[in-house]
Fold this sequence. Notes:
single chain, alpha/beta, TIM Barrel, 2 domains, four-stranded parallel β-sheet, 9 helices
Amino acid sequence: MHCGILRRSGRPGVALFAGVAFLLIGAGCGSDERSPSGVDGTTSSSEVAAVASSAATTTTTEPTTTTAEPTTTTIDPVEVVIETMTMQDKIGQMLMPVVRGTGVEAVTNADLAYNTALSGFGTPAEIVDGYRLGGIMYLGPNVESPEQIERFSTDLQRTAAEVGLLPMFIAVDQEGGRVQRIRGDGVTDVASARSLAGDADLVYSTALITGREMRDLGVNVVFAPVADVVRSDVGVIGNRSYGSDPAVVSEMVESSIAGLQEARVAAVAKHWPG
């Protein structure tokens, strides 16, 4: 069983800003104070000149502007989308089933029978719309060639858009070694995890290549790397694991995830409970 918590990459958030400015301007006043000169109460010409000069002098204070700190209201774009979804759409976003067929309408009679028995719908397109699916997982029977997978992925996304769904998660097991669902021209044949163990840089670069190739085919989720710690190269897990040392396995898993994510593909460490 694969375990991963996937969140759709969000669109840029919307921020609302509000600011209030207050302008405080103060101005000084002139002074006109006189002193008597002599017992006769008359004022000399020099004193008149001094008073006139004093009255003409004004002290001005520079305007002071105070701006309040802007307040910010953040709107989560994910919450906005969720509020517009029906309950069926919300449930469908948590589903990623396996369906039979090599295209949204390309199914054999056996595929039709399988899909109908499992879901009540015959084609992948009908299943996507009927269950309002958030994702599809490719297995061996879905794969004919890389070119066919690219068409299938494109058609799935178009179908989702036409029926009012969000872009889909399209996933595949593409670990390397003996578990590579998609093979053929344009897809690198990657060595097993056990063969790469111990070289974190090589694990990273290999995952980066795989991620880019899957992205080109319309696959945006890779069920890898294997995070199991096992003692033997044989068995169901065997050489799909990076080994028996938890420290080594942890380092390799971290490098693999980083490579896939650098390629803009979601990595899903497995297996759980493992």
